[in-house]
Specification:
With 196 residues, the chain is mainly alpha-helical. Helix content is 62%, strand content 4%. The chain crosses the membrane at residues 44-66, 126-150.
C-alpha cells in the first residue's frame, strides 16, 4: 500500500494576500463559477465567429455576382488600375463560400440539431464537418495562385480571407477545448477538506 500526498486546493485572495484551503462546497462553487464564466465567453466567441463568417460569406457572394471581379480590398484600399481576376476566380469564390459553410458547421456543438441531422443522413457518404487536412489547405490555393501570377497585394489579401477565417476558427476551437480541459483538471483536483 502506497501513500500519496494530497495537493491542497488553494484559493489565492488578492485582497487578503493570503492562501486559504477551501472546503468542498466552496470548491464546487468556485468551479461552477469558473465553468459559467467559461461557457459565457465561449458562447460569445462562437457567436462572433458566426457573425464574421456570415459577413465574409456575404462579401464573397457579392464578389461572385460582380461583373468586374475586382477584389473588394482593391475597392476599399484604392487601386490605380484593376488587375484581371485570377483564372477560375468564380470557382475559387464558390470554394471559399463552401469553406465558410464548413466552418459554420464546425462551430456548432456536436449535439446541435443540424449536426445530428447531417451525421445521421443516409445519403451523405462522409461525416460533416470534415476534418481532413485538405480542408485546411484548400483555402491556400487561390492566394498562392494570385502570388504566382504576380497579382496586386490587395488581390492576394482578398484570396487569403478564407485562410485567415479557417485559422481563426480552428485556433478558437482549440483554445475553447483547452479551456474545458483545464476546468476538468480543476475538478479532478477537488479533495475532501477534512482529509487535507
Amino acid at each position: 500500500m502506497s501513500l500519496r500526498q494530497r495537493i491542497p486546493f488553494r484559493y489565492f485572495d488578492a485582497e487578503e494576500e493570503t492562501e486559504r484551503v477551501l472546503d468542498e462546497q466552496e470548491q464546487e462553487e468556485l468551479i461552477q463559477d469558473l465553468r459559467r464564466q467559461s461557457d459565457s465567453s465561449n458562447n460569445l466567441y462562437v457567436t462572433l465567429l458566426h457573425v464574421l463568417l456570415a459577413l465574409s460569406g456575404i462579401v464573397h457572394l457579392i464578389y461572385l455576382y460582380s461583373p468586374t471581379k475586382e477584389s473588394p480590398f482593391s475597392a476599399l484600399l484604392g487601386s490605380h488600375s484593376p488587375a484581371p481576376p485570377i483564372p477560375l476566380a468564380s470557382a475559387f469564390d464558390v470554394l471559399h463560400m463552401l469553406l465558410h459553410l464548413h466552418l459554420h458547421l464546425h462551430l456548432l456543438h456536436p449535439e446541435h440539431p443540424i449536426r445530428r441531422m447531417l451525421s445521421s443522413a443516409p445519403n451523405i457518404p462522409f461525416p460533416l464537418p470534415l476534418t481532413h487536412p485538405l480542408i485546411l489547405t484548400a483555402p491556400a490555393l487561390a492566394p498562392v495562385l494570385s502570388l504566382l501570377l504576380r497579382r496586386d497585394w490587395r488581390d492576394a489579401l482578398w484570396w487569403s480571407v478564407a485562410s485567415g477565417m479557417t485559422w481563426l476558427v480552428y485556433s478558437t476551437l482549440k483554445w475553447i477545448q483547452k479551456n474545458e480541459e483545464d476546468i476538468h483538471e480543476l475538478e479532478k483536483m477537488q479533495y475532501d477538506a477534512r482529509g487535507a
